[in-house]
Amino acid sequence: MSVTIRTSQNVSVAYEPASIGDRILAAMLDYLVIFGWALLVFGIPARLNVTPGTFYVFVALLPIVVYDLLSEWFLNGRSIGKIAMGIRVVM
Q1: Where are the beta strands (DSSP E) in 1-91?
Q2: What is the pLDDT confidence band of residue 54, given thresholds at 50, 70 and 90?
Q3: Where exactly are the structural domains of the chain?
Q4: Which residues pair with 51 in a beta bridge?
Q5: Strand, coil or helix: what is 4?
Q6: Contacts of residue 86, Cβ cutoff 8 Å, sequence gap at least 6
Q7: How far apart are CA 6 and CA 35, in angstroms?
Q8: What is 6-62 written as a DSSP string?
Q9: What pTM does this model have?
Q10: How far from the centroid of its chain's Cα atoms is residue 75's Cα?
Q11: Contact 43, 32 (CB under 8 A)
Q12: What contacts 24+ positions apart, CB below 8 Å, involve 33-38?
């Protein structure tokens, strides 16, 4: 199913929307990246018996909270999952 959009400059742009499966798989890949970060930050020091302090928790949780914002900002509207699946947001 192709979708056509007419821009303000009177140019028609046609594209094929991503399927639901592609979108779900891209989101799962994004969550896998977040889970990998959590394992790296929480798992390795836990094996070393390091007690987490406020800074440690902040360093661990901040990237998890702002992953979507940072990936959309620095990767031009795409996330790692979207790049892997070859999909993008069209506005």
Answers
A1: 3-6, 12-15
A2: low
A3: 20-85
A4: none
A5: strand
A6: 22
A7: 40
A8: E-TTS-EEEEPPPPHHHHHHHHHHHHHHHHHHHIIIIIHHHHTTPPP-HHHHHHHHH
A9: 0.71
A10: 10
A11: no
A12: 33/67, 33/80, 33/81, 34/64, 34/67, 37/63, 37/64, 37/67, 38/64
